[in-house]
Amino acid sequence: xxxxxxxxxxxxxxxxxxxxxxxxxxxxxxxxxxxxxxxxxxxxxxxxxxxxxxxxxxxxxxxxxxxxxxxxxxxxxxxxxxxxxxxxxxxxxxxxxxxxxxxxxxxxxxxxxxxxxxxxxxxxxxxxxxxxxxxxxxxxxxxxxxxxxxxxxxxxxxxxxxxxxxxxxxxxxxxxxxxxxxxxxxxxxxxxxxxxxxxxxxxxxxxxxxxxxxxxxxxxxxxxxxxxxxxxxxxxxxxxxxxxxxxxxxxxxxxxxxxxxxxxxxxxxxxxxxxxxxxxxxxxxxxxx
Length: 289
What we know:
Order of helices and strands: EEEHEEEHEEEEHHHHHH
Shape: rod-shaped
Strand content: 15-25%
Helix content: 25-40%
Number of helices: 8
């Protein structure tokens, strides 16, 4: 018939959605493959025949029933080319904002599972794969200003709306006339400065730890502290700093063996007898006579 048309694929539509082709359930629609006009119930203008899912897209052939003036008019406009877009209605079953399902420029979650509800001939669709979505029975229009029950993405890889360039430039200390390239250059500069600062901070901490460890090792070697207390004094040094740690270690006297503390004394001299003792000896000697 020559009326085969792409109904949908995985590409991003102009309003920030994606519907994964593999997740589309077509079983129910194939039982009643109606073709509506502008998504309006009661305005059936034909059916979709030979529905196919292949090569990452869903296609079908438009068949106008010509039972109404509207259907005959739409067929003429379709053949002429003044009407050449279709729009698909889905019931949303599951969505995902996982990074692997998000592409640049996407503002709303990806519909990973859905049910094909209807196909319409439209004058202007959201894009070449014009889509309308339904969730919990509510039609999700992809036009600006339409109410959407799907939540906006709250994570920001490189696909959520960027902060206004002017505002961001002012916050970075740049003139408000700075362009995106200048803003990106400033952000890269700040990122590089932070990385360098973090690197220097880490190196400084390593040097401090090495200094503290050396001081504690010296104290262990000098027998000021036992080896099993080494980690305790290292932790103390981390909290107090090297100066206070050194002051603490300096105040500790080296431990000595008991044998080292007992020094042999001089030969004891017999103390001289007191006058009282000498007098007593004299008395005893006289008494023996």
